[in-house]
Amino acid sequence: MIAPKGPTLSVVHHPKTDTKTDTPTATPQVLQPSGWPMPKGYANGMAADGRLVVTGGVIGWDTQGHLSQDFVAQVRQMLSNIAEILAEGGARPEHLVRLTWYVVDIEEYLASLKELGRVYRDVFGTHYPAMALVQVVRLVEKEARVEIEATAVVPR
Questions:
Q1: Which of 40, 127, 51 lies closest to 83 in space, CA to CA?
Q2: Is CB count within 10 Å lower at the N or C end of the chain?
Q3: % of the chain at pLDDT higher than 70
Q4: Where residue 44 falls among pLDDT bands split at 50, 70, 90?
Q5: What's the chain look like in SS3?
Q6: What are phi and psi of 64, to 5 degrees?
Q7: Taking all residues of the chain, what is their mean pLDDT, rounded to a whole number?
Q8: What is the pTM of this model?
Q9: Quick one: angle between helices 71-88 and 113-124, nearest 10?
């Protein structure tokens, strides 16, 4: 048998403790192939065991169905909407294992990276799941600039 060539896989453990009970909580594990550069603001892969919580495509409208014209404001509201959906399913942002972003203008996204990082950390903290970014021609809601599908795994 020939050993496969290429990088080996590392699992980066991020042990967390429940602040109320001071007991460890199970969180998704970051999968980082050895020798690969550490990604900034996302993970290459995640592993988790538990109950799956998924969202549909979530946009940044408020409870009245209004969308801001500002890209970063739409992202802030969208991330807050995702956090609310997760809470309905008994999940928190640290349970996220995947985010798929759909943007109508990738240049607008890239020009806003610093602000987006701040907004992301304000809403989700410093947990960065596996992410993909896809530019699309348009979204169903004509005024929407960005949409995200989220997947979380709640520990058993």
A1: 127
A2: N
A3: 83
A4: confident
A5: CCCCCCCCEEEECCCEECCCCCCEECCCEEEEECCCCCCCCCECEEECCCEEEECCCECCECCCCCECCCHHHHHHHHHHHHHHHHHHCCCCHHHEEEEEEEECCHHHHHHCHHHHHHHHHHHHCCCCCEEEEEECCCCCCCCCCEEEEEEEEECC
A6: -95, 0
A7: 87
A8: 0.80
A9: 20
